[in-house]
Design a protein that fits this description.
alpha+beta, 464 residues, Jelly Rolls, 37% strand, Malectin-like domain-containing protein, membrane, 6 helices, binds 2-acetamido-2-deoxy-beta-D-glucopyranose, transmembrane helix, ANXUR1/2-like, 15-stranded mixed sheet, ATP-binding, five-stranded antiparallel sheet
């Protein structure tokens, strides 16, 4: 009895040692975790991370409300900060020129001063329009986490919350800002559609919004088990092949190679499970494994397929084809060659596709072997790319959302200015009657002001 206890204690400390070692391997230069609306110095979230309370150094706004409720089970969601006016969180950035992860947590908690489920607002970060007319889910128990990776060139990251006219207020429960590991996003990807399959460059100029993050053939991976604190859900709702699939679980060690991708690109728990096609007889199965997704039309998306050969008995036995929307994206993909002939070593392939419906498949190629593994997939990630206006949420840029807010809210001042101009021009008119040589330049001004005032008020709704 006593021995078991000691053993399990030993086990626990060993586990926490391993966890500590895993955490220590990635130490982002910029790392801000804020539990918004909380005045407590520290809050431990469900994944054992320490979030700081709201710090006036970061929150540059005075017209805010601190909301609190004891209902939500996670301490992170028991407080929120609400804004009736535009408010900014400004984070000093030391790691310039690289992407930063921005996670925004929303949980419409109940407070008698305002009903957060009624909130509707816009969120802007360093010129990128992240969310527009956003309404966090009205289901009181739900938590919405929006994750972006934004290129930050300047010394600060400014996140702006802008209430929409409809609701008049915005809120947020928690904010994470983390330097993205340098190997998380590559500048190149394969553009695949019916006409072409070509290498494209310049992805590092884009912002990314996470749309799907899937652990193929395995369990849900929580932030606790991911060194970048991501969540990977199971592939159940996306996998739609009836036959030919076998799930595999690998008990060995995932070999992150020097010069290969790091654990921050994908954690062990994603690479140690997969779905495979296996040939048990001398015949190679004539099947594909296919996963389907709905992604928003009008935006390019980046699809990352994660591979790790945890199923073959030896190197150079696995060759397969990869299809994106039925188009051949990779023929005879050879994971051994891609991973310096090391089994159980991870590799990924990035594809850029148009929005709409998306299907990714893997299947045997004409180099596949009988009595071997003939296709594999371990994980899938899908990101939306910002459009040419720098927006993730509509054909409108951050500037015009911001301008229309200001126009809408200076409507008391503008008519006043217009009235003054009217008075002025009236006096000019009167003077002109007295003095025939006077200029008429003033007369159009009041008209311009009222016109722009009218347009500004409708800008958002008319674009939408
Ligand atoms: C983390 O991963 C381990 C090993 O796969 C698993 O047993 C454990 O339940 C996971 N913990 C959480 C919080 O997901
Ligand atoms: C696998 O999918 C590709 C692309 O849709 C198709 O050309 C091929 O015939 C499929 N293979 C099988 C065995 O169904
Ligand atoms: C392999 O398949 C391709 C088409 O996918 C075909 O052009 C090629 O001839 C095949 N190679 C062999 C050796 O059968
Ligand atoms: C995303 O925004 C960046 C910066 O404004 C821009 O360079 C890039 O072209 C945009 N992406 C797309 C796909 O339009």
């Amino acid at each position: 009895m006593a021995t078991t206890k000691i053993l399990s204690l030993y086990h626990i400390s060993l586990l926490s040692l391993i966890a500590a070692a895993a955490a220590a391997s990635f130490s982002p230069t910029d790392h801000f975790l804020v539990n918004c609306g909380s005045s407590a110095a520290q809050t431990l979230d469900a994944d054992h991370r320490v979030f700081a309370g709201d710090d006036p150094r970061f929150l540059a706004s005075t017209q805010t409300l601190q909301l609190q409720s004891l209902d939500p089970p996670s301490p992170l969601y028991r407080t929120a900060r609400a804004f009736t006016h535009p408010a900014h969180y400004v984070f000093p950035i030391r790691d310039r020129g690289v992407h930063h992860l921005v996670r925004l947590h929303f949980h419409p908690l109940r407070d008698n001063r305002c009903d957060l489920s009624e909130a509707e607002f816009h969120v802007i970060a360093n010129g990128f329009l992240l969310l527009r007319n956003f309404r966090p889910s009205t289901a009181a128990s739900s938590v919405v986490i929006k994750e972006f990776a934004i290129p930050v060139d300047s010394g600060e990251l400014k996140i702006t919350f802008l209430p929409s006219d409809k609701s008049g207020f915005a809120f947020v429960n928690a904010i994470e800002v983390i330097t993205a590991p340098i190997d998380l996003i590559a500048d190149v990807a394969q553009l695949v559609d019916a006409e072409k399959n070509e290498r494209i460059h310049g992805l590092l100029r884009n912002g990314f919004e996470t749309v799907h993050r899937v652990n193929v053939g395995g369990f849900k991976v929580t932030p606790f088990n991911d060194s970048l604190w991501r969540t990977w859900i199971t592939d159940d709702e996306f996998f739609n092949s009836i036959e030919g699939s076998e799930t595999v679980h690998f008990g060995g060690i995932i070999k992150y190679r020097k010069g290969g991708l790091s654990r921050e690109v994908g954690p062990d728990n994603v690479y140690n499970t997969a779905r495979v096609i296996r040939s048990k007889v001398s015949l190679i199965p004539k099947v594909n494994l296919t996963w389907s997704f709905q992604i928003e039309k009008g935006y390019s998306h980046m699809v990352r397929m994660h591979f790790c050969d945890i199923a073959s008995v030896s190197t150079y036995m696995l060759y397969f084809n990869v299809y994106v929307n039925g188009n051949l994206a990779y023929e005879n993909l050879d994971l051994s060659q891609s991973t310096d002939a090391i089994l159980a070593s991870p590799f990924y392939a990035d594809f850029v596709v148009d929005g709409g419906s998306l299907a990714v498949s893997v299947g045997p190629s004409n180099m596949s072997w009988p009595r071997a593994v003939d296709a594999i997939l371990n994980g899938i990630e899908i990101w939306k790319l910002n459009n040419t206006m720098g927006s993730f949420d509509g054909e409108v840029c951050a500037d015009s959302v911001w301008r229309s807010w200001r126009t809408g809210h200076t409507s008391v001042v503008l008519p006043l200015i217009a009235a003054i101009f009217l008075l002025l021009s009236a006096s000019v008119f009167l003077q002109r009657r007295r003095n025939a040589s006077a200029s008429t330049g003033w007369a159009r001004l009041p008209v311009d002001v009222s016109e722009s005032n009218l347009k500004g008020g409708n800008q958002l709704s008319s674009i939408k």
